[in-house]
Amino acid sequence: MEKEGKYIYCIISTNQERNFGPIGIGGRGDEVLTVGYEDLSMIVSSHPMSRIHATSDNLLAHEKVIEEVMKEFDSVLPVRLGTIAASAEGIRNILDRRCQEFKSALINMDHKIELGVKGIWRNMAVIFNEITAENKEIKEIKEKLQREPGGKNIPAKMKAGEMVFQALAKKKDKEAEKVLDVLRKIAVDHRLNKTFGGDEMFINAAFLVDKGREKEFDNIMNDLDKEYKDRIKFMYAGPLPVFNFVNIVIHQAEWEK
Length: 257
Hints:
By secondary structure, the protein is α+β, with helices and mostly antiparallel strands. It has two domains: 4-109 and 244-255, no CATH class; 114-240. It has helices at 56-70, 88-97, 99-108, 124-134, 136-147, 154-183, 214-227, 252-255; strands spanning 4-12, 19-21, 32-37, 40-48, 77-78, 84-85, 112-121, 189-192, 201-210, 232-240. The strands form two sheets. Strands 1, 2, 3, 4, 5 and 6 form a six-stranded antiparallel beta sheet that branches. Strands 8-9-7-10 form a four-stranded antiparallel beta sheet.
């Protein structure tokens, strides 16, 4: 039988024993508990000492536990997905050795939440038409290709495609900056992540916001949604664990010290 370890979700500042229920990763109904040292605790559940893959189910389970902890604690430090300690004693040793680091990070993240914003253009035909209208050279090449019979001018097509690709990237940056300029004024910090899912997404950002300003951020998002309702679909999520701003990493060698 495979040895059981302690899967770690996050770190909080408490010396009280807590049980957050049978919501542990892996679908076995493992209880999520605290393992503490002085005034710091790691949130853990039992799990076999095997590698945990970054599947959507595991990511959601990991995040769900942290979100449950966030309901009771204002400062939570997420630990990287897949971190497993061999024993509670190993956890206490890490909390002892890295206590100042963890305490400083908890102070920095006190009363902070992460809010995620994605912006997706509703109609790419409109965007590509704008690019053509805004770029004289692209417009001339396209008009020339339309006049040529059979459309066999491959070099011209490739050049036009490359120019459109570059213009689209600039347009994404420009439009993202308009949204960022509004939102980062009330955020403590922000991160830009890679966009995905094709050409439509032009912004994928995370904002670190004081809990006291969450409603203000909500109102600004509502205003942006109304202002750009025919052009942009906003996907707004939160409050979320502060993964983009803190992600505690504990290397395997540290457990063995």
